[in-house]
Write a structure and sequence with these properties.
homodimer; 588 residues; alpha+beta; Threonyl-tRNA Synthetase, Chain A, domain 2; BirA Bifunctional Protein, domain 2; Rossmann fold; 3 domains; eight-stranded mixed sheet; five-stranded antiparallel sheet; 18 helices
């Protein structure tokens, strides 16, 4: 991965300083509105800054406007921003009515120089700096207050809940504008919003937060994804297995999950005086099958894949749409192989991962290799080394951009993570290829090698899409709801321009269905343009428009969701055109 | 359904009397071996009889041989079997050392005539009879002791565990032989045995009994079933949804499951101070989706299908292979429609059920209609009547053999059950089409009708295969492991007659895979005949045999598992032949 140049670094530092000064200006603006405000902390962050306040009442959007005006005035008044170093006693005296600052001061190490920054004579903050010299260096048109959020003091849910104001700031108003447009676009692409607009899924607080209900249209997309996934797995030498969603404590004791993963597991259920747990992972079940009957080197490699739904406890505050949930379906697989087969297997699994991600339209993919951590690890060092070498060789063979996270692996084996860049420039970690030197040991897995001796197989966990739910959220946001044809919940909307053509429309619709397309028809009373607009809103890739001319000639006209128009196709031509886009996994 | 004729009834009664007398003879034979035996009860049952004993030690198979010899002697000795009516006091005195009999006597009503049956002077039982007159009427070659089983006294797990000897008996040794052959065939077809022989699935006591692990080959069959199921559901106007496996208590309180179904549910899991339950049924989740957003008559009918895995508590003693488990996947669907749509929907769902069952080769199907029970029911009587009429009309339209179980419905709606007859003459209940007047009420489901008023939709639950696990067990036993080609885990085995042809075999194998077949190859060192035998044992429908002639001509020879042989096919011809059988869902 390319490192930042020193010029780029300097630019970023300058931006951070400006944003930090902006945070002080915001605090001054808030105090102007609420002189009794207690102030906490206000750092610069990516693209902007925030500040946390303890205020006499809940902030509302109108307050943000007043604070913005206050800030603009403060900038215009051109206050100097000056550093002063003070004794602890002086600092405590100065902030006597600011309990959060007092707490911070009291926690500073003995030998720490305590510095204040004065914003003219209107605001003083405990701060390490640096800052711009005076507020005229800030651009009054270059910032925007974005939102109000609750935030516990020091992130501790037992401490007071403060109000945080998030803001964005750039030196240049044009950059601000571009960033705000980017944010607006992200909002439009929020998968929760698309999910609602396109009626793809829902979540139900009453019946349990973080549990996903896939509606008919979301279901069609999921079936398309899973059908493709199954087909490709069979083609690529995998077998598909199915295992239970619950297992007795013995299984989780043996696997070690009850030792090191318990806080992420659901609570146990009592059955016949034993504890049963919903599975947080599929691995122990696959191992139970491996251990059913002796295995020989002739049986290996085994590649067992499962769309396995797992249940993990996440704090309710951290749940988010489909990205962070309490139940999700991993596109999981385990590869069991001999050490001699490892190189080929790893190389194949990486190639397959890239193929799968690219099939969904993700072209920019980079790899992260995590190696042996310091401290106690399971497995021989030689095995770690050869596993790491196999992983790195596979990455290099694919010519992938990659970064090594030295010592960043889990205690049980090294791994590759693959991240994709979406159309909005965001990176999402999707695939993982993870060695495991732990479970084969714990479950005493063996195979009889060519020399007749029992040996341990290598075990690799891998998920290509990660979880179907999270992958789906990334896909929704990546495409902003306008998917490649093969994934669209409705691929074809048949639109007669008036009721005179309803029969013809029914006929065409039936043929589109028979061709295997997810086709619907709009026989409503709306005018053609309204029907087309509605279909475009739903981001249906193909509209088949039928009027007098089409009916007379027995032909169809096609419009795509991007506005392209193709008139006078025979039905066969139309079907061929659409089928080709489906097969190529392309946009219309 | 045809009722039994009086002649047939008489024949059955005669058989039962013979078997009952046999039970007494068996008890006498056991007492000869264990004079201290305590005897419990010994009725005639279908195809035979049993008797329960409290014995000083565990019986073993050799004991059964001794008891059989004892019985043959007793029959040969031609004892009279004579009835005697006695007072309660006399009966208690006679059975003073038989505590089970004493318990039975003490429970007889005051006015009951107490009768004994004497087997000559060697055995006396408390018994209502009737019996044959003398043991010469019994056929010493017409019975067989089958097995030893544990049985609680009076079926109560808190009472002593007795030893039960099961036996079969017919008047005619030929009939016995036929029955024993039938039993032998059933044993061979036991799905647990086939599952092991063909490596289709496993269960693991350690990790929780009654929870099924689908191995790669079982997985292939399940994927074939589910792919077909999904495709047909889409074709037939259903949509496929996915819902969570757990739900908060609110959901199960609202649905009523916690009131009337709790003992079949898993215990709750605590999460964030609320109780969560693994789902025993999918319905409440589908209703949550229905209630997401207002529904209009224009939205109906909705047909939502899910391969939903549910978890139900079954006592460990009742678990049996895949037939009775603690977790299984229902091929579930819910239809929500207006009253006006009901007739068509029911008719369609029945037609679709029959189509699905027939697709798996079940041709003999009969229907059972269960109607409104006495007592408290939910729903208007008029709705019950029209629902029952719709069900019956649909059955009659399909010309199905059917039986009405008057008052046999659940309190919430009438239903149709479909039973299939398998190749062994056994009936299995698979499909259910069940009205529900309860849940729409409990969840306050509505749709806005043409008149602008909010009304309740009709709700129908239906499962066509029932559960995938149980259906699979029926299929395994029905076909005895030799499935129609489309379901076979391995459809094609490529067999070179020697290593000279391994390259050609690899080539053919790749082409078979590319054609979409589940093809494997046997490149081992065994001779051709051994390879063919092995493939036949595995019941692989097609063996593609490759020798010098085939290689030279670039052709293949085919053998089917039933021994058919077709030589000199081009590869395309072979592929076409196999594909046709797959498409037709036929045997090879």
């Amino acid at each position: 991965m390319a490192e930042l140049s020193s010029k780029e670094k300097k630019k970023l530092e300058k931006l951070a300083t400006m944003r930090h000064s902006m945070a002080h200006v915001m605090a001054a603006g808030v105090i102007k509105l609420f002189p009794e405000a207690k102030i906490a902390i206000g750092p610069s962050i990516e693209n902007g800054f925030y500040y946390d306040f303890d205020l006499p009442r809940q902030l509302n959007p109108e307050d943000l406007e007043v604070i913005t005006e206050n800030m603009k005035e403060i900038i215009k008044e051109n206050h100097k921003i000056e550093r002063e170093e003070v004794s602890r006693a002086k600092a405590l005296e100065l902030f006597a009515d600011q309990p959060y600052k007092v707490e911070l001061i009291n926690e500073l190490p003995e030998d720490e120089v305590i510095s204040l920054y004065h914003l003219g004579d209107i605001f003083t903050d405990l701060c390490r700096g640096p800052h711009v010299e005076e507020t005229s260096r800030l651009n009054a048109q270059g910032f925007k207050l974005l939102s109000i959020a609750g935030a516990y003091w020091r992130g501790d849910e037992k401490r007071p809940m403060l109000q945080r104001i998030y803001a964005t700031a750039f030196g240049d108003p044009k950059q601000l504008k571009a960033h705000l447009e980017h944010l607006e676009e992200l909002k439009k692409r929020d998968h929760r919003r698309i999910g609602k607009d396109q009626d793809l899924f829902s979540l139900h607080e009453d019946a349990g937060p973080g549990l996903v209900y896939w509606h008919p249209k979301g279901g069609r997309m999921r079936v398309a994804i899973e059908d493709f996934w199954r087909e490709e797995h069979y083609k690529n030498g995998y077998d598909i297995v199915f295992t239970p969603h619950v297992g007795k404590s013995w299984l989780w004791e043996t696997s070690g999950h009850l030792d090191f993963y318990k806080e992420s597991m659901y609570q146990p259920m009592d059955m016949d005086k034993a504890d049963y747990y919903c599975k947080p992972m599929n691995c122990p079940f696959h191992i139970m099958m491996y251990n059913e009957g002796k295995k020989s080197y002739r049986d290996l490699p085994l590649r067992w894949a499962e769309l396995g739904t797992v249940y993990r406890y996440e704090k309710s505050g951290t749940l988010h749409g489909l990205s962070r949930v309490r139940g999700f379906t991993q596109d999981d697989a385990h590869i069991f192989c001999t050490p001699a087969q490892m190189d080929d297997e790893i190389s194949e699994v990486l190639r397959f991962s890239l193929y799968m991600l690219k099939s969904f339209g993700f072209q920019e993919i980079s790899a992260y290799l995590s190696t042996r951590p310091e401290g106690k690890c399971v497995g021989e060092e030689a095995d770690w080394n050869s596993a790491q070498e196999a992983l790195q060789a596979a990455i290099e063979k694919e010519g992938l951009d990659f970064k090594v996270d030295e010592g960043g692996g889990a205690f049980y084996g090294p791994k590759i993570d693959l991240k994709v860049k979406d159309t909005m420039g965001r990176e999402w970690q999707l695939s993982t290829i993870q060695f495991d030197f732990n479970l084969p040991e714990r479950f005493d897995m063996t195979f009889v090698d060519t020399d007749g001796k029992e040996k341990r197989p290598y075990m690799v966990h891998r998920a290509l899409l990660g979880s179907i739910e999270r992958f789906f959220s990334v896909m929704l946001e990546n495409y902003g709801g306008a998917y490649p044809v093969w994934l669209c919940p409705i691929q074809v909307q048949v639109i007669p321009v008036g009721h005179n053509f309803d029969d013809y429309a029914n006929d065409v619709w039936k043929k589109m269905r028979a061709a295997g397309f997810r086709a619907e028809k709009d026989l409503g009373d709306d005018r053609m343009n309204a029907k087309i607009r509605e279909a475009q809103n739903q981001k249906i890739p193909y509209m088949v428009v039928l009027g007098a001319k089409e009916q007379e000639e027995g032909k169809v006209s096609i419009r795509t969701r991007s506005g392209e128009q193709i008139n006078g196709l025979t039905l066969d031509e139309a079907i061929k055109l659409i089928q080709e886009k489906i097969d190529a996994k392309e946009m219309p």
